[in-house]
Amino acid sequence: MYCLLVFVNLFFFAFDYALKYFTGNTLTPFSMNMFFISIVGAPLMTFINYIIIIVLLILSFILFLVIFYKKTWRNLRVSKIFAIFCFGSIFAALCINPLSVALTKLYFQMNPPVWSLKNDIYPFIKVPKPNTIQNAPNIVYIFLESFNDAYIKDSIFPTLAPNLSSLKNTMLFEKVARSPGAQITIEGMFSSFCGVPYLFSFKNPSNNDFGKNIKCASHILKDLGYHTYFIKGANLEFQNTDRFLDAMEFDERFGRAELAQRKAKNFNEWGVDDDEMLEFAWEDFLRLSHDKTPFLQTILTISTHSPNGFVAKSCENLQGNFNESFYDKSGEDREITMLRAIGCTDKLLGEFINKIRKSEFGENTIIVLQSDHPAPIIEQSDKIFKLAQSSGGLYFAINDPKITQNIRISRQSSTIDIFTTVLDYIGVLDEMQLGRSALKYDSLYNSMNSANYVKAARLAPYIDYDEIEKIQK
After folding, report:
1. Where among 77, 111, 145 does a domain terminate?
2. Is 88 within a domain?
3. Where in the sequence is the domain holding 135, given as residue range(s)?
4. Same domain, residue pair 296 and 340
5. Residue that terminates a domain, selected from 61, 77, 111
6. Is 117 inside a domain boundary?
């Protein structure tokens, strides 16, 4: 029993360290999203190094304890008092282990009564009240996979992303934080679309409906006559994206399987390469534009996916500075795949944006660029990863020919505020659930503690607009 407790304690320490390494936090309700909706369908060979290390660590723990028990503990003659002291000490150590504490908090966070959640969160919820708009613009909304705002800053990564860092007619938001509960792609998209965090339903895992009871950006735009479209290179089933799109009532959706049917040829471990995926997106942009109906075209890139990114075939000979030593003088003179992947993403998006702007439909199209979440890890280079983290923010920009000169917005905002800000920009609304437009209001990010974000995610499936309006009258 003593050896078992020692093993559990050591395992808990190792597991907690791995969590903090990959997510920047210990076990939380939002960490559970990653386990339940990110592992299934992920290309495990991408993370084979980490899997091997974890397996070897577990086997090492077991081997150490077996040897310790056989060679030492079993042959020790100890008093009962000493044995009780040893057992009590390791049991106490297990109780105060960071993961044990996190598990205790997790239990209480996941099981509060709904009425208490409403009391705590309803005062922050703003019922969406959209305006009708004239001359509705088409919206091309691009989520950039694992993209940090540091990549476009010449002070940190000079020359790495020349196209995005020099976009004209652009409103750039400089202080955009990752909201609690927006660590993985589906969380980032849901938080932005709906103005509230997403939490996997453990009580009913087969029916994670992504809050059909609330109005999200896609619902609001559809009510205003928009056609909604989504495309990404990975499978739609990954991270329950298909269920998310169902709940958001998207009219069209394309993933790996659908693009394969359209004769896609270039694939990486996650899905269709970005260069080919964006070619399909361009074809569909032209088709949607010719239909004369306003549309929301949502695009999710894949090239910069952790741990090291994927370089599309059209970027294999891309010229640029992709060596570690170029950005960190103490680094080695070796190419970092993620840097080339970032440069590739910049090149492909630059070409895609230029094609839209030069087309006959460019004047009536706004382009939104948003990080889905920050890079969780860059395996090949800890130095480059630290530089990527040094700025600490997400990339968010609105590109529109009607913006005559570049504008920088320095008001604090977060993932939850981004699509609300876009809706305010086109005149639809400026508040949505926890979302606040960065063009007008201070974000709740600085005033609402992380515990309330967990409560908001737990409450999301139970939000009742009629109840809120009665309370707030």
Report:
1. 111
2. yes
3. 131-472
4. yes
5. 111
6. no
3-state helix, strand, coil in the chain (%, to 5): 50, 10, 40
Tell me the β-bridge partners of 272: 267
Angle between helices 2-23 and 98-110 (to 10 degrees): 70
Q: Is the same domain home to 136 and 100? A: no
What single letter denotes the amino acid at residue 344? C
Contact 181, 457 (CB under 8 A): yes
pLDDT band at 238 (very low <50, low <70, confident <90, very high): confident
* Contact criterion met (CB below 8 Å) for 414 and 396: no
What was the pLDDT predicted at 80? 65
CA 59/CA 63 separation, integer angstroms: 6
Whose CA is closest to 215, among 126, 297, 299?
Answer: 126
Distance CA 456, CA 80 (A): 50
**Total Cβ atoms within 10 A of residue 457:** 26
pTM: 0.86
Cβ pair 337, 308 in contact under 8 A: yes
DSSP per residue over 189-215, as a string?
HHHHHHSS-----SSSTT-----TTS-
Per-residue pLDDT tens over the stretch 124-135: 999 999 999 988
Q: Which pair of structure tokens corresponds to residue 458? A: 């737990």
Q: Are residues 23 and 77 in the same domain?
A: yes
User: Distance between CA 473 and CA 470 in Å, rounded?
Assistant: 5
Q: Closest by alpha carbon to 432, among 467, 460, 395?
A: 460
The domain tally of the chain equals: 2
Distance CA 131, CA 224 (A): 9
Structure tokens at 316: 């294999």
In a domain, 125, yes or no: no
